[in-house]
Amino acid sequence: MLRGSVVRRLIASAAIVSAPCAHAAHEMLETAARALDIAHIESLEYQAAGRYYQFTQAPAPDLPWPPFDVDGYVATLDYGRGTVHAKYHRVQVQEPGRARPPAEATMDQFAAQGMSWNLTPAPTAIPTNLAERNAELWASPQGFVKAALAHKASMRFDKEGWWARFSIGRHRYEGWFGREGDVKYVATWIDSPVLGDTRIEFEYSGYRDFGGVRFPARIQRRVAGLPWYDLEVSAVRVNQAAAFEVPPEIVANPAPDNRVVEVTELAPGVWNFGGGSHNSVVVEQQAGLVVIEAPLNEERSLAILEEIRRRFGRRSIRAVINTHAHFDHAGGLRTFVAEGIPVITQQRNAIYFAKAWQQPRTLNPDRLAKTLRRPVFEPFVDKLRVADAERPLEIHAIQGSGHNDAFAMVYLPAQKLLVEADAWTPAPPGAKPPAVVNPLWVNLYDNVQRLGLDVQRVAPLHGAAQDFATLRAAVTRKSTPD
Asked: How many CB atoms lie within 10 A of CB 254?
């Protein structure tokens, strides 16, 4: 397996070795094209099983992405139409010492005509996944050679073999061929609200004949330097891909607007800024406003800031509180930093963000990348109090949660209100309760009891506010057999 440091050394050595003539470079591409039979392959479908690691959801900022066992993985790569369809079944691995709720799902993912969506089972637009699905198409061995020829790749030679480099729109690709013409390694970059330009790597090994087509028996992907997929290929089929239409609801709304902000009062001077999948909470204090959570991305944070200014005029924002480093709950932090607003978060998160935010941002430069403002953190370990005469805040570490090891909740003692993310997401009204009580809910309840907090209401950052009695009933309900 080519590790990142090895790859970087190979790239560096390629830059200083005198390259053979252009004719030899063309011959190398032709050798690869013949070895992989790209002239006769318009589409390719492979079947695999193995392991998947959920990017953006590490159980702590300095730990790998959480693992899932994968079976029935079928990827259909249609080079002629430029479409991708991947479907697989996944079950989360229960790591020793980490109590998680059971997580099992069938993923059904599509990309076509510049749009990306999942069937869940209804079509759901996932525009943020378009770049990685296109990467699966053009970083595949046959796809990479086709794209290298079509985009007039520059070629470099070193003692290990040939390197090809080209760009498709804003996205650049580079890959390494073995001397026999097999594609061994491909790298490209996607944008992430937390990490900026994020390197994804594809490593191919064990090439063999699958019913007349040469293809790797093992596919390993890494994202941000960490394992992402590790798949063992069992079958390959060519030129059997059927055309599929983009669902009309996706065509009508390929990138759902997350700028809608709906404001409701949780208590006098405490406001829920909802209107989408993730909430923020704004607390009025004498020294300025405190915002709890900056989720998703810059677009969402700009909408939150605009609504704050519409409602509160020129009142300053004292700080933004981050509950944990999962990207859907941290993707909008940089927008607040660009405004000079300090970030309150646990120390492990602050260390992670300070490093992550130094990454280049050429694919999608955000406001912080343009202002170059240095972030200001107010880190804590177990507890931090933000004093105020009417609405003081207590920020407490959530101990022992299977969800995250650097996890916090916010308590307003005067209002007897708890604000939390992901530790408890209430089920929709009328939904059947889970057969087994969610251990994250139990852990949140136990932390409230451990700290002696007099909570009467809970404001989840997913969903509507609930009485604390609803949480108590959920965690004290007896589990039932499936």
From this structure: 17
CATH code linked to domain 4-252:
2.50.20
Q: Which residues contact 73 (CB under 8 A, 6 or more apart)?
A: 47, 48, 49, 50, 86, 87, 88, 231
Query: Position of tokens 């330097």?
Result: 225
pLDDT digits (tens, 9 = 90+) for 419-469: 999 999 998 888 888 889 999 999 999 999 999 999 999 999 999 999 999
Q: What token pair was written down for 159? A: 């003692």
Cα 32 to Cα 23, 81, 161, 180, 197, distances in angstroms: 14, 22, 12, 7, 29
d(CA 190, CA 197): 6
Instruction: Out of 153-157, 197-201, 453-457, pick the least confident.
Output: 153-157
Tell me the pTM: 0.93
- Residue range 387-421, pLDDT digits in tens: 999 999 999 999 999 999 999 999 999 999 999 99
What is the C-alpha to C-alpha distance for residues 257 and 254, in angstroms, rounded to an integer? 9
Do 342 and 169 form a contact (C-beta atoms < 8 A)? no
DSSP 382: S
99 phi/psi in degrees, rounded to 5: -90, 110
Q: Where are the beta strands (DSSP E) in 305-367?
A: 317-321, 343-346
Which residue, 65, 199, 68, 185, is CA-closest to 132? 199
Supply 5's token pair: 């440091």
Report how far residue 302's alpha carbon sits from residue 107's, in angstroms, rounded to the nearest whole number.
31
Chain centroid to Cα 106, Å, comes to 18
Query: How far is Cα 51 from Cα 70, in angstroms, rounded to an integer?
Result: 5
- For residue 354, which amino acid is it? A
Are 4-252 and 262-476 the same fold in CATH? no
Q: How far apart are CA 169 and CA 165, in angstroms?
A: 13
CATH superfamily of 262-476: Ribonuclease Z/Hydroxyacylglutathione hydrolase-like (3.60.15.10)
Angle, helix 130-138 to helix 141-150, in steps of 10 degrees: 90
- β partners of residue 235: 47
For β-strands 383-386 and 377-380, DSSP reports them as unpaired
Q: What is the dihedral of CA 140, 118, 129, 298, to 10 degrees?
A: 180
Q: Furthest-apart CA pair in the chain: how many Å?
A: 77
Between the CA of residue 341 and those of 284, 369, 482, what are the distances in Å? 15, 15, 48
229 phi and psi, to 5 degrees? -135, 145
For the chain, give every domain's residue range.
Answer: 4-252, 262-476
CA distances to 80, 155, 156, 163 from 25, rounded to whole Å, are: 25, 6, 8, 9
Place of tokens 């790749």: 153
Q: What angle do CA 7, 13, 18 make, to 5 degrees?
A: 140
- Residue 479 above 90 pLDDT? no
